Give the backbone structure.
Amino acid sequence: MRRCAASIAAAVALCLATSVNAQLTIRLRVPASTPADSGVYVAGGFNGWNPGSPTYRLTVGDDGQYAITLPESVRGPIEFKFTLGRWERVETDSAGGGISNRRFTIPATGAVTWTGSVGGWQDRATIPARRSTRRPTVSVIDTAFAIPQLGRTRRVWVYLPPDYATSDKRYPVLYMHDGQNVFDDSTSFAGEWGVDETLDSLFAAGDPGIIVVAVDHGGPKRLDEYSPWRHPRHGGGEGDAYVHFLAHTLKPYIDRRYRTRPDRLSTGVGGSSMGGLISLHAALKYPEVFGRAGVFSPAFWFSDSTFVQARAGAPPRPGTRIYLVTGAREGDEPERYARDHRTMIDILVARGFTPGREIEGYVRADGTHQEWFWRREFPAAYRWLFGSN
């Protein structure tokens, strides 16, 4: 009897401890059509919007309801959605239509439960294909370009200036990440940057032109490839191999095949969110290769090691230019994005980067963590990075 009482007391203590330490617990009902062999996942700013992170897979109970308790560190306002492991199978309403991000504010202390339901799951087979918006100046170099450093392949796009075929000019090159979102709405997740439209318009207004090479992200491997440092929940750790691919495999290939200006001051790298983080890493790790970096809404929250790296090393090489832009309404913790942005600027200035010459940075009051913002900010970033300044 004493042993039973002790067991009950221990169970109660465990339950209380779990409740005290618990964060947000999500309880979810899914449609009967949900495939039995498909996992249900939650994706949000708290996990880099990874649609299939094993850490954020819900478990199903005997009653058929799914549940997950988020890490204790996740507090304040959050946005999230549910998926079947990839964005092609994101949740929809009961009629199959798209829905907005879910929003919830988690209190600063204690435990709380969110309960909801999914109306349906997106099915590419039943969704009309979106019209391609890429301009004739854009083509696909290869749908399976080899990345020997990672043992993978990837689609790689290229934008050529409108006068490329009719001139003998050489052009600077900008390497970009998340290629699905750079040129074409039909391949994008939530809209495209419209880099081809922007550059064609600038060319028509007198800009000399630039080549843009865009590499698709690796889906579930995106967070792994876009950070050199590991995160305890989100992965990472393959970023060094990825930027080595850019600098020592892809760039030499592009320089051989196209009329480029291969010097460092004519070579840039750019991207947003995790793509912003890896762009800055590439420029700091290979300053002899990338003399230009466009860093949009960088996800510096992923690892403090990015600040450690920025503090180390010598002053910038002559002519280096790094452009940072962040929105004041970014993600679940907008104040953190803005704070990290300013911290990085301060660190690089202390290292010897001169504001207005080697580094430029802006926090835009209306900026959000979305493609429309990066599309709007791209022209100013491009002109500062590659213009006469």
The longest strand covers residues 138-147. The domain at 2-124 is CATH 2.60.40.10 (Immunoglobulin-like). DSSP finds eight helices and 19 strands in the chain.
